[in-house]
Amino acid sequence: MPSARGRNLTFTEEARRAQLLDVTTELVADHGYAATSLGRIAESAGITKAGVLYHFPSKQALVEAAHARVLSELVEAVGAAVDAAGPADAPAAYIRAMVGHLRERPRHVRMIVEAMTSVAPLTDSKARWSAVADLIAAARDARRLTGEVDLRSAALVIGGGIDAIVSESLGDPEYDAAAAAELLVSVVERGLL
Amino acid sequence: MPSARGRNLTFTEEARRAQLLDVTTELVADHGYAATSLGRIAESAGITKAGVLYHFPSKQALVEAAHARVLSELVEAVGAAVDAAGPADAPAAYIRAMVGHLRERPRHVRMIVEAMTSVAPLTDSKARWSAVADLIAAARDARRLTGEVDLRSAALVIGGGIDAIVSESLGDPEYDAAAAAELLVSVVERGLL
DNA sequence: GTCTATAAACGGATAGAC
DNA sequence: GTCTATCCGTTTATAGAC
Which residues carry the record's DNA-binding region feature (chains A, B) (predicted)? Predict the structure, then answer.
């Protein structure tokens, strides 16, 4: 597979890049974007600033790459769960997969938040809610129900609810996020939303 | 009223502080915490960096003060709306007041987000959801209903839903946030949640 | 009360050796 | 591929004049 550098990568180069994405995700998640300097990234990876900049053209490019990798992992996991469920159960599967995946990856959550607020503030919100809205519409269809509520608002509330549940379980590992996810599922299944 | 500086403030000093809180809120909301230097704050206020640091001991203290002012304005407005409503209607009043207040103050929203992620990452989430949980419990009591769902999770989902609605209306002023708020209200009134 | 001037450190990024 | 060395801009904060 060709890479972003326009040629094939050696194995060691590939390994370095993966390592840099790892340490960047960890540092940005734990200390924030602003507090994560190239120097700290280099130190954590065991090389120098210049060494880091050989693999990625800039700090921003590196952080964006780390962000993209975290995001693609999420959409892959959730997508698989949704596909495994039938259309009628897709919304429930989505909620459970999102909460389940993110709750187990606190650093991924913080990485996403940090990247959204510090490097990609213009992330298109529609990309997220419209996917959920489609799931709800398909589920209604599969169950031969006529929806009463606005799909966009329903999808937004579901997304916000998921975020709040995940965020809470990050701060309090004792919190039963799975039960909270079921609460959200029950609301969706009962028609509102 | 005694001030944080331990003595009474002159009128001009009070005015300067208020002006600095204003410009700081504006700059942090528009450009983010990291991109808001003391130099830019000073320039916007028409004084110098050293002048700013006479009024506030550090950049962080200034931003925290601006954050606190925005927050207290929010809790005052929402608190008044909740108090004006009866206990039975308090949850609905809370949702409407939150969405209404924040939708009209995009910069306050961004200021709060920026401060939460960059200067006060350890904000106690319980302070927010427990207040909402209390409102729901009191409303159930006033309506002689027995709640079935976990109050904490219900409060979290409501809060997350409000955040998502407000955030969406920030990015798309055409979006009918008031209607979305009514959707959330109807969910609460119908028992779940 | 606000300024000038400056300290002292840190940031990202580049050039070129090896 | 990674390093050393360095540049240059920017940052917060302080000292002391006015």
Answer: 37-56
Q: Which of B31, B168, B170, B188 to mutate to test the interface with A (most CBs of A within 10 A)?
A: B168
Q: CB distance from A118 to chain B under 8 Å?
A: yes
What angle, 0 to 180 degrees and rounded to 10, lies between the N-to-C axes of helices B177-189 and A151-171? 70
Is residue B183 within 8 Å of A151, Cβ to Cβ?
A: no
Q: Which residue of A has its CA nearest to B30?
A: A121
Instruction: With beta carbons less than 8 A apart as the criterion, state whether A130 and A151 touch.
Output: no
CATH numbers and ranges of domains, chain A: 11-189 (1.10.357.10)
- pLDDT, tens digit (0-9, with 9 covering 90-100), for A72-128: 999 999 999 999 999 999 999 999 999 999 999 999 999 999 999 888 766 789 999
Put simply, whether A152 touches B (Cβ < 8 Å) is: yes
Q: What is the pTM of this model?
A: 0.93
**Number of neighbours of residue A27 by Cβ within 10 angstroms:** 23
Q: How far A83 CA sits from the closest chain B CA (Å)?
A: 25
* C1' (D6) to CA (A193) span, angstroms: 60
**For B2, phi and psi rounded to 5 degrees?**
-65, 150
